């Protein structure tokens, strides 16, 4: 018995090879959908891997008091009240120049809160200078031989200052961080007294200057404020839930005055294709109207088409070997024939059937109900 001989109760034969092919096609489509909806970029908000920030994005999205926005164009900073908005810039790839830098500066000047998370790249420092902040990242690797997570390059910053932004935060668990040069900024979190700066390959010796280094600061700039963190890794999935990174990040935007959180990706990694399409539709009224019109047209068109008519049309256009085999078709193919003629016809039409099966089919066709429900 081959794959097409298995019969369902309604008389339709199952073609198992084609069922498996369909399952494979569906699996491939699901995989392609996942690729289109996710990113592999470090610090990517749609990257669910260890180095992505998908958990942070979801955490903000789950907060019912907050509206989250992903920005790919700095012009969108003007869409929300600056004094009710916190904007995150996480390890930008490209420098903010010209109009982009000016828009971010105006956002801060109008009362917005800008959070810059950077460690070794000067892009973050350039943005801080553009908006008028004094804090800067040092750019050297921060290490601590005594207070660390999985090694000296993952120091645990235990010096948490008493501030509204650090309520409920006792420490930060860092990962390849750098220290900050605060200027006149207020230090929020600092390392222990056993931290030092230098390349990873350098070994600690008596000449190294052990001291406490700032790793997070806040300062007022015009009517707004700028928060600087010397480690963007506190936002990635593998570090976000380490003590007390998530609590610290939430404290930066969970305030009675904040109703919007902006993730500025205008100078960061690319957004996945599917997410880009969704964002384009959501951000453009014209595109929304166009998509709505197309949707209404499709619904109106499909409402006029009977599903059975579509199925019959598709089935009629399939090659004969792809046509579904139903038991009721046998009776319609053999009107007015003798049993011998029917047997000859069935042997030619179904060479894989044995004589016993052919006799049963002929017997079923001769029964009173064969016109509607043949047994075979």
UniProtKB/TrEMBL annotation:
Transmembrane regions: 20-46
Top-level taxon of origin: Archaea
Record's keyword terms, sorted: Membrane, Transmembrane, Transmembrane helix
Residue runs in coiled coils: none
Domain DUF4350: 46-252
Listed InterPro entries: Class_I_gatase-like (IPR029062), DUF4350 (IPR025646)
Name the record gives this protein: DUF4350 domain-containing protein
Source lineage: Archaea, Methanobacteriati, Methanobacteriota, Stenosarchaea group, Halobacteria
């Amino acid at each position: 018995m081959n794959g097409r001989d298995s019969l369902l109760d309604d008389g339709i034969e199952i073609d198992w090879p084609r069922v498996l092919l369909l399952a494979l096609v569906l699996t491939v489509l699901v995989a392609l959908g996942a690729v289109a909806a996710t990113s592999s970029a470090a610090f990517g908000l749609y990257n669910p891997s260890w180095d992505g920030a998908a958990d942070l994005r979801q955490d903000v999205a789950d907060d019912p008091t907050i509206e989250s926005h992903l920005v790919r164009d700095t012009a969108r900073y003007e869409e929300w009240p600056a004094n009710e908005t916190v904007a995150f810039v996480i390890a930008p790839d490209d420098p903010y120049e010209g109009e982009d830098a000016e828009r971010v500066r105006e956002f801060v000047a109008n009362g917005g809160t800008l959070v810059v998370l950077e460690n070794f790249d000067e892009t973050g420092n350039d943005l801080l200078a553009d908006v008028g902040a004094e804090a800067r990242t040092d750019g050297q690797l921060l290490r601590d031989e005594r207070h660390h997570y999985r090694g000296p390059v993952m120091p645990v910053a235990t010096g948490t200052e008493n501030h509204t932004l650090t309520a409920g935060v006792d420490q930060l668990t860092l990962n390849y961080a750098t220290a900050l040069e605060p200027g006149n900024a207020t230090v929020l979190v600092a390392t222990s007294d056993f931290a030092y700066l230098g390349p990873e390959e350098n070994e600690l010796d008596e000449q190294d200057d052990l001291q406490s280094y700032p790793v997070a600061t806040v300062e007022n700039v015009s009517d707004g404020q700028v928060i600087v963190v010397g480690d963007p890794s506190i936002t990635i999935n593998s570090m976000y839930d380490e003590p007390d990174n998530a609590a610290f990040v939430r404290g930066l935007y969970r305030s009675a005055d904040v109703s919007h959180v902006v993730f500025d990706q205008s100078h960061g990694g690319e957004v996945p294709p599917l997410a880009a399409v969704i964002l384009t539709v959501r951000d453009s009224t014209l595109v929304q109207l166009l998509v709505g019109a197309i949707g209404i047209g499709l619904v109106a068109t499909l409402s006029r088409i009977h599903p059975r008519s579509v199925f019959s049309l598709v089935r009629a256009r399939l090659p004969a070997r792809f046509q579904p085999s139903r038991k009721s078709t046998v009776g319609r193919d053999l009107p007015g024939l003798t049993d011998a003629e029917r047997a000859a016809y069935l042997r030619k039409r179904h060479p894989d059937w044995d004589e016993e099966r052919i006799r049963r089919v002929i017997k079923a066709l001769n029964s009173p109900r064969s016109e509607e429900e043949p047994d075979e």
